[in-house]
Amino acid sequence: MKYFIANWKTNKTLQLSIEWMQTFLENYVPNENKKIIICPPFPFISKLNEMISQSAHVYIGSQDISVYEQGTYTGEVSALNLSGIIKYTIIGHSERSLHMHESTDISFQKSKLAHKYGFAQFYCIKNENDPYPPYVEFVCYEAIDAISTGDGKGNNKPLKIIIGLKRKLALQPNTKFIYGGSVNENNCKEYFNSPEIDGFLIGGASLNPQRFLAIINS
Ligand code: PGA
Q1: Which fold has domain 2-216?
Q2: 71 C-alpha to center of ligand 1: Å?
Q3: Which residue, by CA, sits nearest to atom 1 of ligand 1?
Q4: From the CB of residue 154, how many other CB atoms can be counted at a distance below 10 Å?
Q5: Residues near ligand 1 (Cβ within 6 A)
Q6: Going by CA atoms, what residue is nearest to atom 9 of ligand 1?
Q7: In 27-147, at which residue ranges do the beta strands (DSSP E only) sit?
Q8: Pocket test for ligand 1, best of 8, 186, 201 (most atoms within 8 A of CB)
Q9: How far from 104 is each of 64, 96, 127, 133, 191, CA to CA, in Å?
Q10: Which ligand 1 atom is the nearest neighbour of the CA of 183?
């Protein structure tokens, strides 16, 4: 099984997200060995969930959840709010610490809430020294210098380096290992054939449905 996670970050309007999904679904061929998880901005989640309701192996996830569960936290979107709507979430993306100054402690608290609400989580680490909660389903390795500036064409890490880091992590047998950082339609083949990598977190190259499909179909 390979996992393809689209991380749209803070891009698109509702209309553009609908057009993306229409193009995606027109060209998407379900494959039981591939799971697709699309993580749009929060406001588009429900509409996109409706659009994929008849499509096999496609899911909508969130890019983050609040560190709070419920209460007087204006503007926050919590695991409780998202329960019954999503089953997957990204936790601890490095852009949360870079721009929102979130600590590892905050990521761990969010992770606990995601776990409590039964979300499978893509828990991001930047290097082999980053801790991760032992129960997470997916550990996602994204070195900061590999993340693109938005076009998916940055300094992706060579497969050898990725596998070396994975070994150092000594993951539990059930924990899946995801790679992210400038994965695109040109470099994905090298990764795809490696049994060491269970999936990909794709930012810039997922913004265009044709590029995202090219990665899935590689
Ligand atoms: P990128 O982003 O594919 O544009 O490098 C990946 C990510 O940060 O999730």
Answers
A1: TIM Barrel (3.20.20)
A2: 32
A3: 203
A4: 17
A5: 7, 142, 147-148, 152, 154, 180-183, 201-205
A6: 203
A7: 34-39, 58-62, 88-91, 120-125, 138-141
A8: 201
A9: 14, 10, 13, 10, 28
A10: 3
Measured distance CA(78)–CA(92) in Å, rounded: 15
Task: Quote the pTM value.
Answer: 0.97
Kindly report, residue by residue over 49-76, the tens digit of the pLDDT. 999 999 999 999 999 999 999 999 999 9
Question: How many CB atoms sit inside 10 A of residue 30's CB?
Answer: 10
Q: Are 77 and 68 in contact (CB under 8 A)?
A: no
Per DSSP, the three-state class of 59 is strand
CA distance 115 to 111: 6
Tell me the per-residue pLDDT of 121-149, one tens digit each, with 9 for 90 and over.
999 999 999 999 999 999 999 999 999 99
Tell me, in angstroms, the distance from the centre of ligand 1 to residue 89's CA. 15
Long-range contacts of 105-112 (CB under 8 A, 24+ apart): 106/67, 108/133, 109/67, 110/64, 110/65, 110/66, 110/67, 111/136
Question: In angstroms, what CA-CA distances link 119 with 60, 130, 150, 182, 210?
Answer: 12, 21, 27, 26, 28
Quick one: DSSP state of residue 36? E
